[in-house]
Amino acid sequence: MEQKSKKIQKIVEKELSCSAHNMAHVMRVYNLCLLLAKSESNVNLDILKTAALLHDIAKIKEDQDNSGNIDHAILGAKMAEEILKKIGHDNDIEQVKHCISTHRFRSDNKPNTIEAKILFDADKLDVIGTIGIARSYMIAGQYGQSIYSNTLIDEYIKKNLVGGEINGRIKDISKHAPNIEFETKLKHIPKKLFTQKAKEIAQKRIEFMKKYFKQLKKEINGKI
User: Fold this and answer.
1) Three-state SS string across 15-77, please?
2) What backbone phi and psi angles, to 5 degrees, belong to 127?
3) Which conformational region is residue 88 in: left (phi greater than 0), alpha (psi within -120 to 50 degrees), or beta?
4) In the chain, how many domains are there?
5) Helices 72-86 & 45-54, crossing angle to 10 degrees?
6) Which residue spans within the chain are E strands per DSSP?
């Protein structure tokens, strides 16, 4: 397993060039998965570790698609299958694919296994709190986003999220902004999580973010 993990890591490193979805993000999610697994029972760590390493393998392809038609979770599951077969990792491929295909927030695909639920939770924890704010601005800088947008949330959802739904994928990421990400996704994360440990961690991180964006809005509008 260790040798196969190293092979997978090298493949993922080559595929991911996005600053916020690079190997550092993958390994934070990987470590959060192991942390959450300690509070759960009957977790297959081989499945969990493999899925964690490969969960964002198609993220760059999604980000480069302005139509919003590519779902990196679905495409990533297919890519993961090809990678695992190529390196001779034939065990539990369907379970790994399930974890990857159900890990994203903006999706109707729900995780059904404990490994998939842990991956979902770990991935969401890495987009909130201080690390979440930092990542939001890394993405903002990469895609030319504003540091704050006064766009009405309902109007934004209608125009720039697929289907005009709050859980729709982003069409044009350059029109996004960190505060819009918080309003349409991040603040809703705690109630979407599956494991108790993740919920406890998430609530503390969201409270910090609420205070941050409240203060940011004041300063953007010239208030002390």
Assistant:
1) HCCCHHHCHHHHHHHHHHHHHHHCCCCCCCHHHHHHHHHHCCCCHHHHHCCCCCCCCHHHHHH
2) -110, 10
3) left
4) 1
5) 120
6) none
Taking alpha carbons only, the member of 195, 176, 166 closest to residue 106 is 166
Burial of 128-161, coded b for 16+ CB within 10 Å and e otherwise, reads bbeebbebbebbbeebebbebbebeeeebbeebb
User: Tens digit of pLDDT per residue, the chain (224 long)?
Assistant: 678 888 999 999 888 865 567 889 999 999 999 999 999 999 999 999 999 999 999 988 887 777 768 889 999 999 999 999 999 888 899 999 999 999 988 778 899 999 999 999 999 999 999 999 999 998 899 889 999 999 999 999 999 998 999 878 888 989 999 999 999 989 999 999 999 999 999 999 999 999 999 999 999 989 87
- The enclosing domain of 184 has a CATH number of 1.10.3210.50
Write out the residue range of the structural domain in which residue 206 sits: 2-220
Q: Within a 10 A sphere around the Cβ of 94, how many other Cβ atoms?
A: 10
113's tokens:
């296994």
